[in-house]
Amino acid sequence: MPRPTGKMTDDSIVDKGLSEQGFSTPHIIADKFKLLRSQFVQFYLQKISSESDWKSVRDYWLARKSGVLSKIKDNWLNPSLKELTPVVGKEFNALKAFVEAALEEKRREIETAGQSATARERIDLSLPGTERPIGTRHLIRQTSEELQRIFLSIGFNVVQGPEIETPYYNFEALNIPEHHPARDNMDTFYIEGAKNHDVLRTHTSPMQIRTMEKQAPPVRIVVPGKVYRRDNPDATHGYMFHQIEGLAVDTDITFCDFKGTVEYFVRAFLGPKVKIRLRPSYFPFTEPSAEVDASCHVCGGSGCRICKQSGWIELFGAGMVNPAVYGFVNYDPERLSGFAFGMGVDRFAMMKYGVSELPLLFQNDVRFLKQFP
Q: What is the rounded CA–CA span in Å between residue 21 and residue 88?
C-alpha cells in the first residue's frame, strides 16, 4: 500500500512539539487528537483491502521508532507543559487504544474472508451431498393415526382424557362392581396417598362416561391414549400400552350396525379380503359382548406362525352398550342404544408389521425403528 498523501497525517505536524504549534489549551489538544482519529479511519483504515495493506498501515502508525504514535509520544507527550501532560496523556492513550483495536478487528475480517475463499475453493460441486438422517413418527404413532383416520372417515370424532382417573369413571360408571377382580390392586395401579383412591386408568373407556355426561346423543367417538395394568412384562405384555376405545350411541342402533362398522374397519386396516367372525364373550359394560376375530392376513386363513396355525387372529373385544351404563349418564335406555369397542394399538402394530416382541416397540433402537419410515 503506497504511503498516503493529501489530507492525511502531516509528518511535519507530529514532528513538531506542542509549543511550536501553539497547542496551549486542553480544548485545542482534544480537537487535534479527534482530527487524527478521523484521518486514521478515513484515509487509512477504510482503504485496507488486503493483508499487505494492513501491514503497511500498522507499520505506519504503530512502528516503535518511526510510527505516528511514537512521534506523538516523543514530540507531544514527553516535552509538554506540566499542566498539559495529563490532558495529552489521556488523549494519546485513547488514540492508541482506538488504532490498535481497529487494526485488530480489520485483521480478523481479512483472515475470515481469506478462510471463506479457501473453503469455497475446496468445495467440489460434483461430489454428492451429505445425506442427513431424517426422523419419522414412531410405529405406534403411525398405527394409532391410521386407526383414527379409518373411524374419522365414517363420522367418528377423536377425544382424549386424563391418564389418572377416579374409581368412579374407571370402574363404577362402567358397571364394574366394587369387588370385581379388575379392581384388585394386583391388576390396577392405585395412586399412593390420592384422596379419591385415584388410579392409572386401566382402559380408555372412562371417556365414554365423561363424554356422555357432557354431550346429548348422537355420540360417535374414538379415544386413543396410554393405559396401565399390572401385567408381568413378556413378549406380548407390559405395564403400559396404548389403546383406542370407540363408542357410538343413537336411536335405533342395532347389532347389525355394530357388525357392519367392525367389518368396515377390519377390512380397511388389514385388507379387503379379510373375513371376520364374532365369538360370544363377556364384559361388564357391554351386553351382548363379543370377541372380534379376523382371518389371518398373512396366510389367508390356511394357517401360519402368526395365527398359530388356526387361520384366525383375535383382534379386540366389543359389544352393545349395557343399558346399566346409561343409568350413570341419564340416558334413556328405552330410546337409545349403541355399541362400544376397545383395541390395543401395540397389538395391531405388531400384527400388521410382523413385530414379534412387544419390548422392541419401546427400546428406541434406531436400527429397528428405521425399518418403518
A: 14
Q: Which three cell numbers, joined as nine digits, stand for 308?
A: 398359530
Tell me the per-residue pLDDT of 162-185, one tens digit each, with 9 for 90 and over. 999 998 999 999 988 877 777 776
CB 221 within 8 A of CB 342: no
- C-alpha to C-alpha distance for 65 and 44, rounded to whole angstroms: 19
Helices (H), 50-126: 51-62, 68-72, 85-122
Q: Which residues contact 339 (CB under 8 A, 6 or more apart)?
A: 247, 248, 253, 255, 257, 258, 261, 286, 318, 319, 320, 321
Task: Output the pLDDT for position 38.
Answer: 85
Q: How far is CA 71 from the centre of its chain?
A: 63
Give the separation between CA 257 and CA 329, rounded to whole angstroms.
Answer: 23
Q: pLDDT value at position 278?
A: 94
Secondary structure (3-state) at 187: coil
Residues contacting residue 125 through CB under 8 Å, at least 6 positions apart: none
- Tens of pLDDT, residues 293-347: 998 877 777 788 777 888 888 899 999 999 999 999 999 999 999 999 999 999 8
Question: 253 and 338 in contact (C-beta within 8 Å)?
Answer: yes
**β-strand 219-228 against 157-158: which pairing, if any?**
parallel
Cα radius of gyration rounded to whole Å, the chain: 42
| Cβ 249 vs Cβ 212: under 8 Å | yes
Other beta carbons less than 10 A from residue 38's beta carbon? 10
